[in-house]
Amino acid sequence: RRDAVRMTTQRAWRAYMKYAAGFDELRPLSRLGTNNVTPIDVLDTFWMMDLKYEFKEAVDIIRNIDFHKATNELSFFETGIRVLGGLLSAYELSSEPILLKKAVEIGDILLVAFNTPTGLPLSRVDPRSMTANGKSVVLAEIGSNQMEFAKLTEFTGDNKYREKSQKVIEYLSRVETDAPGLVPVFMDSISGKLGSNFVTFGALGDSYYEYL
């Protein structure tokens, strides 16, 4: 069964490399792709499946990614857990230097989001202008990056990553609610004001509690 899964993975990757290499989506008529996260998403899977050739192919695609040339704003949350997290986990497994280099590159871009009076990150980052916006955030967005930034500090020795992300947890721990320890999901990153008293362990808040 393990071999069958491995072969199916290889077959899917070969089709991906033929028709959509470097992209997440393929437009069937124009045959043009969009986005570029799939090669990062598959790194740790390939490594654990001992698909070293496919791993190298993915790394070669990532080597040529320039995050500063992204044509759209980046989601702080999705980019943190998928791109930064994916690069760091693959680096920890493989010790491939380019993966750490790219993790630092995207990590520095994401740090821009923390430039607020409260220290709470904004929801979107423009890597071209190195600015951020989107002050209306949810708990899962701002409270699910501490592990990635702590790892980046561990691998680089630069404490700025851990400091920025940990201040968010310290801020949230001071939020006063009727249920101590439970944080409402809607808030404003600029003012720190809560949007409501709605608390949930489900969507919008789940990953904050998972990261704790």
UniProtKB/TrEMBL annotation:
Signal sequence residues: none
Gene Ontology cellular-component annotations: endoplasmic reticulum; membrane
UniProt xrefs under SUPFAM superfamilies: Seven-hairpin glycosidases
Broadest EC class assigned to this enzyme: hydrolase
Pathway assignment: Protein modification; protein glycosylation
Molecular-function GO terms, alphabetical: calcium ion binding; mannosyl-oligosaccharide 1,2-alpha-mannosidase activity
Annotated protein name in UniProt: alpha-1,2-Mannosidase
UniProt organism field: Dimargaris cristalligena
